[in-house]
Amino acid sequence: MPSNKPNTQTTTLTRRAALTLGGMFLLTACGSAATEQKRPEGSASPSGSASGTAEATASATPSATPSLAPALPEAEQGQLRNALTALFADGTYPQYSLLVTGMDGNLPSIKATTAPADLYAANADTARVPASTFKVLTLFALNHYANLQARLRTRVTRDSAGLYLMAGGDTLLGAGASNPKQIVGHAGLTTLAELTVKALLQGEKPTAALPVYLDGTFFSGPGVNPGWDDADVASGQITPIHPIALESHTVPGKSTASNPVRPDDAAVAAQQAFVDALNTTGKESGMSFTLAERRTAPAEAVEIAAVESATLLEQAQQMMLKSDNALAEVLGRCAAIAAGKEGSGEAAQQTVRQALVDAGVNIENLVQADVCGMSLTDRVTARTLVQVVALLNADEHAEQLMSTFPIAGVSGTLSGRFGAANAVHARTFVQAKTGTLYTVSSLCGVATRPDGTRLIFAIILNDLGGADALPAAKERVDAAAAAIANRSTAPSASASPSAVAASASAAPAAAVSTAAAASAVS
């Protein structure tokens, strides 16, 4: 598989040479294009509703592989069907899709350990608005094309005209010193300024104020996606995307997950923070610096300083756990660059689609307007989501990839969920990506049953009717996931010790793997 490539240096140099021709520098960010297979959480969109079709129908597909045992015994399949059918029998959510499978997702490319079958399917092939569960597709594409252990570099180059702040895709920069223990602020502009002043002092000291230009050619195309509602941009739920920014395109110290405060121009805000840090650092040495316009650095400009971001895997954890829309768009563009395309929003969408096609995922009725799930134009089926989750779990780096998914009652956007009586016993045993807009509630991931059996599921509810309907919709989705985990009530005291041990060893392993990333998530 092309992700997490062992020969990082070779692929880095290949992309470096290619991007130099286009006036961009990637360095250690993303690998070369691969030829072999290998919406806002914590907030709601002011956008309108999305339509759905087809009445719910539930079915269990007969096993196509008689030599393999089913993922669930027939009696348990029946119990699951009855439980899920009963949850939606009141007709409150007519526009819903739900699919449950074994860990192969019924994909022929995955070696099945149980008989491939839809354990439960209701409108599983009806395309619906996914909200932020769309980010699962972006994660898959990033892993498909890029080296998740790579880091994004923010550099400073110099020529006779002045300094150039070279945007390299790191939009989680801090204004202060680099903090290697953090994802946001792993690379700091104060540290970059200190390295820059040190390099200048080692040469001929500038006699006049040095202009600091901003080279933002790492990304291309419009920053605002035409699929985004103007009200969502105005409210800050999404924002123009740049290849450099402080704390994921926000104003440091003024933003929360549910109320992001955005600068007018995130790239210029980062440039200004860097110039301020340069003036503070260089004052003792008699150096001064001024903010200059955007300008592409000439080929002869020499690098004099650089800082590196958290790994792409750590940034993917941030994207998924916090459901960060702007970061999803950034990482989608990084995936596009790694695939040999330009770093634009359109190229990011093309890259996600191509990754799915390469992997044999069913993309029937897939409609892409972005890669973060903010747009109400986005459409995806529950089957597509299930198959992508199956591929992530079949990947050689499955544990790392699944570490990006929130855990019910523990981390990320699921930390405060699964509190109702019919869902609380599923806490820590459901690991899934959430999706929330005023008209959408969705969830897709893995549920672990008391005997240790793991099942993949996707649930999408559309046409919810507004913010007032969201709490009840989320509870219904949580209850469905708990039923899939067979934890709608407390596990039977008569469960065998071996079953309890199997269940305990399956789900908490994921919780441990996400502990570091989840620690800062409310």
The SS-based structural class is: alpha+beta
Mean pLDDT: 86
Q: What is the overall number of helices?
A: 14
The total of beta strands comes to 10
What is the strand content? 5-15%
Cα(first) to Cα(last) distance is 34 Å
Write the element-wise H/E pattern from the N-terminal end onward. HHEEHEEHEHHEEHHHHHEEEHHH
Strand order of the largest sheet: 2-1-10-9-8
Radius of gyration (CA) equals 24 Å
Helix percentage: 25-40%
Give the low-pLDDT segments: 1-63, 496-504, 507-522
What is the makeup of the main sheet? Answer: 5 strands, antiparallel
Shape: elongated
Please outline what is shown here.
This protein is of the alpha+beta class and 522 residues long.
Describe the structure.
32% of the residues lie in helices and 14% in strands. The chain has 14 helices and 10 strands. The strands form 2 sheets. The protein has a 5-stranded antiparallel beta sheet, sandwiched between helices. Helix 3 (135-145) runs parallel beside helix 8 and helix 3 (135-145) crosses helix 9 (345-358). It starts with 7 loop residues before the first helix and ends with a helix. The model is unreliable at 1-63, 496-504 and 507-522 (pLDDT under 50).
